[in-house]
Amino acid sequence: MSSNDTIFHKIMRREIPADIVYEDEHMIAFRDIAPQAPVHVLFVPKVDIATLDDLQPSQAGVVGRLAVAAADYARREGFAESGYRIVMNCNDDGGQTVFQIHLHLLAGAPLGHFGVAGRS
Ligand code: 5GP
Question: FRET pair for 93, CA 20 to 30 Å: which of 28, 99, 114, 117?
Fold first, then answer.
């Protein structure tokens, strides 16, 4: 379980502003404050789970719903066919900085291949 005082919880509680693009009973989605692509949206579940490593088998639907919502968003916004990337960072080597699980949706330009920092 994550603590419920991450920056994302504050966004969910409307204690700090964010450019919210989608919300339902399960999740909230908003634009990343430091976008790594022309489109960079974060999909965050409302249930407290710190990292992917904490996800229980019974919670598989939590991540499934994030993926479905991201794909729906891509179709709605018109870039499903041109393509996009979804990413979940886990713990330090994965680059995770906010310890409430979230799915990154990146799109709007060719993203190239991904790899290990410092390697070409
Ligand atoms: P992580 O590195 O944990 O996978 O992703 C965290 C993301 O949250 C980063 O891409 C970072 O730019 C974004 N972020 C951090 N603080 C804020 C904030 O206050 N507002 C928004 N919209 N995004 C944030």
Answer: 28
pLDDT tens digits, residue range 35-93?
A: 999 999 999 999 999 999 999 999 999 999 999 999 999 999 999 999 999 999 999 99
| Domain encompassing residue 28 | 7-107
For every residue of the chain, which 3-state class applies, written as one string?
A: CCCCCCHHHHHHCCCCCCCEEEECCCEEEEECCCCCCCEEEEEEECCCCCCHHHCCHHHHHHHHHHHHHHHHHHHHHCCCCCCEEEECCCHHHHCCCCCCCCEEEEECCCCCCCCCCCCC
From 8, 33, 104, mutation site for ligand 1 pocket: most ligand atoms within 8 A of C-beta = 33
User: What is the domain count for the chain?
Assistant: 1
CATH number of the domain enclosing 98: 3.30.428.10
